[in-house]
Amino acid sequence: MESEVLLSVRGLRIAFAGVEAVRGLSFDVRPREVLALVGESGAGKSLTARALLGMLPRGATASGSVRLRGDTRGGAQRGSRIALVPQDALSALSPVHPVGDQLAAAVRSVARVSRKEARARAVAALDRVGIPDAVRKARAYPHEYSGGMRQRAVIAMATVNEPDVVVADEPTTALDAELQEQVLRVLGEQREAVGAALVLITHDLAVVREHADRVLVMYAGRQVEQGPAARVLDRPRAPYTAGLLASLPSGEPGAPGEPARAGVRRRLPTIPGVPPVPDALPPGCAFAPRCPLAEDRCRREEPQPWQVDDGHEVSCHRWDDVPYPAAELFQEQRA
Ligand SMILES: Nc1ncnc2c1ncn2[C@@H]1O[C@H](COP(=O)(O)OP(=O)(O)OP(=O)(O)O)[C@@H](O)[C@H]1O
């Protein structure tokens, strides 16, 4: 069923020593859907990802609920159904064991199968992500893989047990453009092959435009806007989303406005200022100090999510005053 919800997050809050870094986040992920979590550094994307996996850092306290197919149990129950592709591929693989052994161990940690069967699944997973001569490569150590092949091996590791959800935390930041594209393509293919949904964490709206069905834009631990990716990027209703879009090079797949002209470099507007830290949030809307549309109310009252369109929510008092094209908000400021 199209509308079936696979993963449901309600009122998620994550705090360190009483200071909230994620402040009441709610979203759903449907089967096979790609949901992108976007926002600047410190928005709470990685913490949210870790909460989905039930792997919060030491000292964090969480409230709210994360349900997978209606089940709130965390730990191993959820751990085997939600898999992580971490930011740093190297940290995901042990340097002292052959890659195939690591994948086989991952298989045996969730399924009671023979060593031989686990091995076969490991090789099949390596083969599926496009590693040539997978039988032989399974016997090699991570340092014997090229950077791109290692990324693929990490994706194989995350998908070997055919999870319901793959969470990829900025899987491409350390890679050059060609490898980034490759990794995103392989992730997409694996999503198809094992029928998983993908939660893709990124700060790159061009990646969202290319690869996501839905997008959740975060700022200072809260939802700013969420909805179908094409609709949010074409007609953002939150000034913050508009600012992220304005800072994309024109002609990028996520960028609005005219196509890029070869040889012409324009100075890109960026959102002035920096995001607040969790223990020094301004009153009202956390984005107000950087927002060209902020008025008194914004500095007093935190906006609640408001449905502007089918499945498109925005948390902004002034969403109806965001111009079209929205990037103009920040271009004007620069002038
Ligand atoms: N282990 C920790 N101890 C204390 N505070 C933390 C810890 N981890 C995260 N935080 C706080 O939570 C905020 C959000 O962190 P998070 O890593 O989720 O951000 P992010 O959006 O993923 O950023 P980035 O893009 O840089 O990874 C941080 O700015 C920090 O204040």
TrEMBL record:
SMART domains: AAA. Residues 7-245 form the ABC transporter domain. GO terms for biological process: peptide transport. It is a peripheral membrane protein. The keyword Ribonucleoprotein does not apply. InterPro entries: AAA+_ATPase (IPR003593), ABC_Ni/Peptide_Import (IPR050388), ABC_transporter-like_ATP-bd (IPR003439), ABC_transporter-like_CS (IPR017871), Oligopep_ABC_C (IPR013563), P-loop_NTPase (IPR027417). CDD domains: ABC_NikE_OppD_transporters. Keywords: ATP-binding, Cell membrane, Membrane, Nucleotide-binding, Transport. One of its GO terms (cellular component) is plasma membrane. Belongs to the ABC transporter superfamily. This is ABC transporter ATP-binding protein. Pfam families: ABC_tran, oligo_HPY. The keyword Nucleotide-binding applies. GO terms for molecular function: ATP binding; ATP hydrolysis activity. It comes from the Bacteria. It is found in: Cell membrane.
